[in-house]
Amino acid sequence: MKVTFLGAARTVTGSCYVLETGATRFAVDCGMHQGNRAMELRNWDEAGRYRPRELDFILLTHAHVDHCGLLPRLVKQGFAGPVYTTAPSRDLVEILLEDSAYIQEMEARWRSSKKQRAGGLPEEPLYTVEDAVAAVQKLQVVEYDREFSPKPGVRVMFRNAGHILGSAFVEIWVQDEGRESKCVFSGDLGRPHQLLVPDPWTIDQADFLFLESTYGNRDHKNEDSSRQELAEAIAYSYRHGQKVLIPSFAVERTQEILFSLHLLAKEGKLPADMPVFLDSPLAIKATEIFRKHARFYDDDARAVLDAGEDPLSVPGLQLAQTVEESREINTRQGPAIVIAGSGMANAGRIKHHLRHNIWREGASVVFVGFQAQGTPGRRIVDGAPSIRILGEQLAVRAKVFTIGGFSAHAGQSQLLEWLGHFRSPSMQVYLIHGEYAAQQEFARLIKERLGYTVHIPDYLDECTLEPGGVFQLTSHHDLAPRIDWDFLLEETHCKLAQVQDRVRHLDRLGYTSQVEIRGTIVDINSKLLEILSELRMVEAQPQASQADV
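Given the sequence above, the corresponding structure tokens read:
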């Protein structure tokens, strides 16, 4: 049996793992690659690595776009099989893919218009709303804890992963050449004691475990302190008469924030005259789906329902559906809480709210989820003195709160605790869905504390899986576009030299322009330090650790 890592390998987006035997070929997840331009080009798969016509079926762990967002593309290119997922995931996938397709169409139209004005050819979207509708028709609902066989020789069971509503980790038993192996794909594991969703279930047997490692290098703060931090951010901006901006993902994070605000209101920590705006049509739809599938809530959330309360209702909550309603929020004076997408501040309505408020002293920006490298959210969290948003360089004067306890991902200790339930001494562990530095640290901890052999596959790696712990890796990095580092660094050096030659002219600029340029150079220096730090870490590791820790 062979597994190919087509995404979320040494990165956190594009989850897709293709398993292949002599009798079947199927995928676990088919997520969209997100981040910089080079990362997003993987979505187009010009080399044909997904080969969607040859996939018999897909197992979908949950509804986040980095796990399901390429499904319309695969259907467009010929995938005709079923896609198995849970009932909440099925409904959430429908609205998320429709939204993603709309964005793809809008961006393609914008780029086409720009290219055509310059005499170029129009650009096709990655996929269309019609493709998304066709993809949703492939979804088939399965129940937790109920075994099924999507193909002779393959048995599957979905278990509750406690990440978002409907999320699952997947147990897969595969017959190949007369032997049966058990693979477990964690999907994204949730943290225990999360609001709304149950704790992740546990199992104890596997031959091969593919384990997410998003927070493999750190833990979260506990839930009580996180809610207290949110209360502090609200109190801070309320005192100053400014807004609290919460970049939030539409699914799970928004609903958990609403539940937290509900609890703060009951505790008397949410000012009665402070309006709360949910400025995201997608999040509004997702919240209704959560209400529809309340039977999947955890015991605490169901107890709130049994008491006659709605855990997703907040005093003063106003829903902004239209663009006009969103704009009106920024013309409104006085304190307010604004929840808007996207969670990493790299798209959506939150960018407009940041443009109007991030430079205001007394405002606050509350990050409640993971901020990937290269995103505006990551730059703000890392302390950038200024940030470019919608073409405008803005000073960061708002107070920045980073509240990790709202994360839907398990932290390091929680991942280790979940892994500790396994009783399979020869189990091979593959770390997926994480940034490489975090994975290296997590791999060392797993080996030291639990004794498992750990591998850190890279994008396009192929592994032959044999029962008994045999590991055979085939790297196909030669298939990926090569980066001409010499040319790139020479170009960087050349531009830096030109700036140095003209440094005497900076004094002729106005003070504001000088400060903006200084901020840009500080950002560049900060990024170079990050690169140097990562290179030193790699340099310090034995050569073998690049593929196998």
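The CA atoms of residues 213 and 434 lie 5 Å apart. Try to locate this feature in the token string yourself.
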